[in-house]
Prior knowledge:
Elements: E1 4-8, H1 11-23, E2 30-34, H2 41-51, E3 66-70, E4 74-79, H3 92-96, E5 101-105, E6 118-125, E7 131-138, H4 140-150
Parallel strand pairs: 2-5, 2-6, 4-5
Antiparallel strand pairs: 1-7, 3-4, 6-7
Helix pairs in contact: 1-2
The protein binds adenosine-5'-diphosphate and magnesium ion.
Amino acid sequence: MKSIKFITKTEGETERLAKKLAILLRAGDVITLKGDLGAGKTTFTKGLGAGLGVKRTINSPTFTIVKTYQGELPLYHMDVYRLEGSEEDIGFDEYFYSDGISVVEWPQFIEEFLPKERLDIVITSTNEKEREITCYPIGDHFERVCEGLAR
Ligand code: ADP
Ligand code: MG
């Protein structure tokens, strides 16, 4: 499987898709979320958190880079937008090779630190409410995850 595409028509549908994904994940998994401002990256992360049993409200971590939430597994929510062009390593491996799930918004800015095996997700806005969510699995585990998501 090269990629799989989903269309959502509401914020809630995007959250539900992410919630379904959460159930298929395991400790140490890394999900990247690419998309313009307002595409739905943080909305997707909220759904993922709900699926992991996070009770606290998840919101944009723009000013902290990483926010940690406690669910059935820890959720590390990163927005690395501010690291554009810096090449700074804030200790990514501690998150990526851990007992938790990492979600990275704006992964293009830390390309060199991303693990090889991961699930890349691209969200594009086709109109005000419709989003195209394309998943690109890298590695056997994430291929299986995507097959599960399609079911
Ligand atoms: P990002 O983190 O990519 O900047 P956000 O998740 O913070 O984006 O914001 C997405 C915005 O788009 C929210 O205001 C949300 O209500 C709106 N929206 C409208 N339709 C959808 C949809 N189908 N999926 C996700 N968000 C949607
Ligand atoms: Mg965001």
